[in-house]
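Revision sheet: structure tokens.
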Amino acid sequence: MADARVLDVWILALATEGERVRADDLGPIVERVACGEPDALGPLYDALAPEIFAAALWRTGSRADAADVVQDVFVKIATAPALLKGVRHPRRYVLTIAHRAAIDRKRGARPDVSIDQALLLHASGGDAGRAVDAARATAALRELPAAQREAIYLHHFAGYSFRDVARITRVPTFTAASRYRLGIARLRAILGGSR
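Predicted:
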């Protein structure tokens, strides 16, 4: 039971509002990019590149591929800024582009970072205690099917709703929520806790 609480605290600490870009802050930036203002691309990059990199690293397991995904996403936006015209949820839209680019990269690449290292890079922030908790949680995460790990990452770490997770992964909302719930239940069982 204590191990499950450690996992819950650790996951919630990673998903704090301060670590995520607020969607409503992107609206004016995205409008400027969509209108072709080149100066607006920098603030959009600053706002989303770290999250895109983290998601791509999680998906590909390769720092080089994750960096390439970030580059691919912003080159696509820079060369076709009209893609962002009328987009109601820019953060989700850009992460969906990144998700697809990461899948394409993953098809032909070998990971240079294990899932443990990818999550630890994202989680620890230099705190030794947090790194130990992250190591325990990632050992448990390795035992989950990839679809469940992905649902947990997108919901907890990236802060997306189940509807957003469903759109990003191209599955029904119920399936996204089920993958998440099954994954969390299995993590609790692996870590010896039950609720």
